[in-house]
Q: What sequence folds into this?
């Protein structure tokens, strides 16, 4: 009987474990995670879970793991992969043999040089981080957020809902400069301003100082922001140390091929920790930190641990919820030669990004609730099919995108 | 199984291979028209995170949640894989005189 081990008990690792059983694997499955909670979904941590103070939204409860025969080792760290002996060594000295190993080690928040989290400085990645941050988000408190990416902005929206005042500091000239078109970022920024968030763009931090009762940020232009908590949301770093120490190839993430295999064919990697080639974009190597990528790659890794030979060919897809707005993005827009706008009414709109040959390479949209979701999904299918849709049809709201897919 | 037939809308108010939202007596539903021109009804909210399915995409006999892409067969309510694992409740539907009714 084969032994499969999965290191990393997040969305990706948990989905892979269940997918192995769904695909008929009858050997042992051991899922190892360093957190004490069972695997849970991370997207709510900056949104509804933060506002409600809810417990973690589990991917599955303990009964489902038991029923599927998945052994979950929580609160355990893996110290080493012994590739020659095909086993992993845990922090408590246990050695677990494997026939196939999946690394789904995720990522961790990027920190400021020389400044660890703790005290009045926090980052948001885990449920425990969210709990700690939430304790500071009370009516009348003031939170400073460093970084105008998805995490920082979602956190700002949640903090406002809880009655805290917010100053968001972004070093670049605008928020969401990574992967989100300026037209959409401008709407997000103005909505935050309307909700009372002080958004400071192009603001470089000169110094951070913790004092009794406050944390103080000094900006290069001399402005001082005093807050009861500073949340640092400046990106994530892939957890590649285990792979590196085992001599596996690492290139901005654990480097895998289209089948999610590392440089050792018995070790696969999936989710936030990996970098992989994207066939739709000339096999350009990317690392995507997203819920859906974690899920899809977890399932694909399971298929390929069983020898499925299935290649990853997905369209990158992201979403963010802030206040009552949702923005969604499919594809990678850099490299776009033209952009076509389609208005959907009530302020919602879509942007279609086409390359120089007229191929649709990305679509992005923003609107209230799920106003743009269906069209972004259809755009994703057009992108996957490498279509060259007529720009006039894309711009015309009366032309259903579904008809372009059928064309 | 159904006690009452409730009027939903005119049959041509739903496009082929599409879905609309229908609210009745404090409950919310999704009403579908299939590519074969048959009509179907399910609970309106996805069993994963209570997102309304009427904003989702209908492809053939599958409805996909607009938020997390959970998929259901809207004819049977069957959940078609992660992240959804709980089936969707379905309701009988009839079309009479060009009007769609849901049986509640």
A:
């Amino acid at each position: 009987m084969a032994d499969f081990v999965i290191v990393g008990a997040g969305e990706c690792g948990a989905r892979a474990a269940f997918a192995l059983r769904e695909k008929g694997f009858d050997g042992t499955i051991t899922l190892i995670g360093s957190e004490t909670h069972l695997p849970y979904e991370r997207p709510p941590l900056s949104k509804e879970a933060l506002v409600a103070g809810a417990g973690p939204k589990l991917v599955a409860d303990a009964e489902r793991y038991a029923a599927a025969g998945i052994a979950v080792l929580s609160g355990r760290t893996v110290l080493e992969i012994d590739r020659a002996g095909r086993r992993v060594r845990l922090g408590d000295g246990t050695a677990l043999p494997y026939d196939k190993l999946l690394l789904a080690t995720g990522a961790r928040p990027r920190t400021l040089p020389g400044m660890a989290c703790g005290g009045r400085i926090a980052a948001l990645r885990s449920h425990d981080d969210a709990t700690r941050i939430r304790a500071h988000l009370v009516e009348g408190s003031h939170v400073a957020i460093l970084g105008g990416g998805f995490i920082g902005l979602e956190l700002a929206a949640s903090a406002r809902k809880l009655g805290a005042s917010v100053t968001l500091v972004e070093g670049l000239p605008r928020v969401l400069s990574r992967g989100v078109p300026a037209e959409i970022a401008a709407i997000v920024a103005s909505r935050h301003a309307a909700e009372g968030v002080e958004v400071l763009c192009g603001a470089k931090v000169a110094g951070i100082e913790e004092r009794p009762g406050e944390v103080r940020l000094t900006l290069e232009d001399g402005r001082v922001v005093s807050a009861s908590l500073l949340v640092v949301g400046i990106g994530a770093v892939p957890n590649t140390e285990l792979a590196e120490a085992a001599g596996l190839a690492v290139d901005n993430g654990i480097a895998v091929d289209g089948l999610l295999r590392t440089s050792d064919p018995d070790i696969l990697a999936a989710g936030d920790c990996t970098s992989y080639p994207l066939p739709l974009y000339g096999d350009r190597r990317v690392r995507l930190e997203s819920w859906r990528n974690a899920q899809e790659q977890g399932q694909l890794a399971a298929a390929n641990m069983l020898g499925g030979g299935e290649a990853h060919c997905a369209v990158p897809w992201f979403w963010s919820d802030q206040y009552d707005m949702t923005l969604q993005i499919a594809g990678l827009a850099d490299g776009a030669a033209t952009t076509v706008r389609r208005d959907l009414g009530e302020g919602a709109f879509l942007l279609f990004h086409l390359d120089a040959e007229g191929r649709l390479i990305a679509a992005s949209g923003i609107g209230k609730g799920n106003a743009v979701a269906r069209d972004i999904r259809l755009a994703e299918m057009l992108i996957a099919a490498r279509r060259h849709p007529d720009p006039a049809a894309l711009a015309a709201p009366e032309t259903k995108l579904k008809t372009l897919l059928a064309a | 199984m159904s006690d009452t037939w409730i009027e939903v809308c005119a049959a041509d108010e739903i496009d082929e291979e599409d879905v609309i939202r229908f609210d009745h007596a404090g409950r919310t539903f999704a009403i579908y028209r299939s590519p074969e021109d048959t009509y179907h009804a399910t609970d309106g909210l996805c069993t994963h995170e209570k997102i309304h399915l009427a904003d989702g995409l209908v492809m053939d006999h599958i409805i996909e949640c607009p938020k997390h892409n959970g998929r259901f067969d809207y004819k049977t309510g069957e959940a078609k894989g992660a992240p959804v694992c709980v089936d969707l409740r379905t309701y009988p539907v009839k079309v009479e005189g060009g009007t769609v009714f849901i049986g509640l």
